[in-house]
């Protein structure tokens, strides 16, 4: 297995895949709760129920999708075919989710449930193979931080496109009709997302090949993964990382609107500044990881994120500039840790292969994605239920003190508490870069000397730089 560096084009291509994901997924994270409560017209409690209910389905569909991807054999590999065939149905489902039909009562809620359900299933069919692809592009754990950094830089670009463009586009296209504006604007964003997926498919290759055990039954795969303590810890890290991030992102529009009192342009600037800061942190992450163990970099950035979040809670709403700067700092620190957490997932998979002799990349990353979506669901449920408990009222000029407190807590202290647990989980993970060098060297020695770099001669790998 070559340890040469991946080409910049391939790193960008890999990042474009998750940028495509987030042209729809970021809209769900940042705007769907607002769309449901303030545009579509259903209560926050119902919104929370919608977000939570889908995770019971994911508990079944995610490992099945991972097993299906592991068993897939094609001229394009195991995971890349799904980036070719599934993005268009996902785009259609996303547009339908942001469509407001002329319904009322139970029918309106049923439509919201159904479209969110379909979108979630299709998102699973795209994103589990994409995430698993990150474990087979290379077996060099340092290169994984590098291409995961490109991934999160381009995810940041997708967030920027949404943050800076979506709400102005909704206003411009809708002409005051937010329902129509959201439908047409998400159509445009979804088409852009499909193009990003296709770029990823064309430029990225699979190089780490499955062992014969990949064809085992799903129950055997799950048992093999269950004995991998590092994988179990990474599941916890994934869940906590997602929970704190989605809480903050979901609360950001409410915080900017009601606590800081920003206009539509101010809200866009506030969220865009956070996205830019996250991109900057992500760009810095691989450089820091070259000099320090990536796990230590992750822990240090997490502690800084906790401190900045606590300070942000103490800042009064009248100090909008100070609050915005602290939000930027929080986003910057999150950006440093984000690519490392995904590199740790691949490290845990390597460790599992080293311990058991089995490599179940699709099922392994399906577990991680399920816990990520659990973080999304619980964050959405928490936002909906806590806003309802705090007395939040949609489409009013001024919220009650209790509602403002809940909004502030959702952006600051609650994510900070989650990050404290995440810090502890990464401490338990224990594997540093020197440990992974030994694991990787041992795995390379076990693999056949004639292992080829591509699944098919019809689909050769691009040159390394």
How many individual helices? 16
Question: What's the total number of strands?
Answer: 0
Helicity range of the residues? over 70%
Determine the N-to-C terminus distance. Answer: 15 Å
Order of helices and strands: HHHHHHHHHHHHHHHH
User: Which segments are poorly predicted (pLDDT under 50) over 5 or more consecutive residues?
Assistant: 449-465
Q: Biggest β-sheet, characterized?
A: none
The name of the CATH architecture is Up-down Bundle
CA-atom Rg in angstroms? 21 Å
Global geometry: globular
CATH topology: Growth Hormone, Chain: A
The domain count comes to 1
CATH superfamily: MFS general substrate transporter like domains
Average pLDDT, all residues: 82
Strand content: under 5%
Supply the helix-strand structural class.
mainly alpha
What is the CATH level 1 assignment?
A: Mainly Alpha
């Amino acid at each position: 297995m070559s340890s040469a560096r991946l080409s910049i084009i391939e790193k960008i291509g890999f990042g474009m895949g998750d940028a495509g994901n987030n042209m729809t997924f970021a809209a769900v994270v940042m705007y769907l709760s607002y769309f449901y409560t303030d545009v579509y017209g259903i209560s926050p409690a119902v919104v929370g129920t919608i977000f939570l209910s889908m995770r019971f389905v994911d508990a079944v569909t995610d490992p099945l999708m991972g097993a299906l991807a592991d068993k897939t054999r094609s001229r394009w590999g195991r995971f890349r075919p799904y980036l070719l065939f599934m993005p268009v149905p996902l785009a259609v489902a996303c547009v339908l989710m942001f469509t407001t039909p002329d319904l009322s009562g139970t029918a309106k809620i049923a439509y919201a449930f159904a479209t969110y359900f379909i979108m979630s299933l299709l998102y699973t069919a795209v994103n589990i193979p994409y995430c698993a692809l990150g474990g087979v592009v290379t077996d060099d754990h340092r290169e994984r931080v590098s291409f995961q950094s490109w991934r999160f830089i381009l995810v940041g670009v997708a967030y920027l496109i949404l943050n800076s463009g979506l709400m102005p586009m909704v206003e411009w296209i809708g002409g005051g009709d937010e329902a129509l504006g959201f439908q047409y604007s998400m159509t445009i964003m979804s088409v852009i997302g499909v193009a990003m997926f296709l770029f990823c498919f064309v430029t990225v290759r699979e190089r780490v090949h499955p062992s014969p055990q990949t064809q085992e039954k799903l129950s055997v795969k799950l048992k093999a993964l269950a004995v991998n303590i590092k994988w179990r810890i990474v599941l916890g890290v994934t869940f906590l990382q997602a929970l704190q991030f989605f809480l903050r992102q979901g609360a950001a529009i409410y915080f900017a609107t009601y606590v800081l009192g920003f206009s539509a342009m101010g809200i866009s600037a506030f969220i865009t500044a956070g996205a830019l800061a996250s991109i900057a942190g992500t760009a810095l992450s691989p450089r820091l990881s070259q000099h320090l163990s990536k796990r230590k970099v992750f822990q240090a950035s997490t502690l800084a994120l906790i401190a900045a979040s606590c300070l942000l809670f103490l800042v009064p709403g009248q100090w909008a500039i100070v609050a915005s700067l602290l939000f930027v700092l929080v986003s910057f620190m999150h950006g440093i840790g984000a690519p490392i957490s995904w590199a740790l997932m691949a490290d845990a998979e390597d460790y599992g292969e080293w311990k058991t002799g089995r490599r179940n990349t699709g099922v392994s990353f399906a577990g991680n994605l399920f816990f990520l979506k659990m973080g999304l669901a619980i964050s959405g449920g928490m936002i909906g239920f806590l806003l309802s408990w705090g007395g939040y009222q949609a489409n009013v000029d001024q919220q009650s003190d209790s509602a403002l407190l809940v909004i502030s807590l959702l952006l600051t202290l609650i994510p900070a508490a989650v990050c404290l647990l995440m810090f502890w989980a990464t401490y338990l993970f224990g594997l540093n870069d020197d440990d992974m060098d030994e694991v990787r060297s041992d795995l390379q020695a076990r693999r056949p000397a004639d292992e080829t770099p591509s699944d098919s001669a019809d689909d050769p790998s691009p040159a390394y730089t």
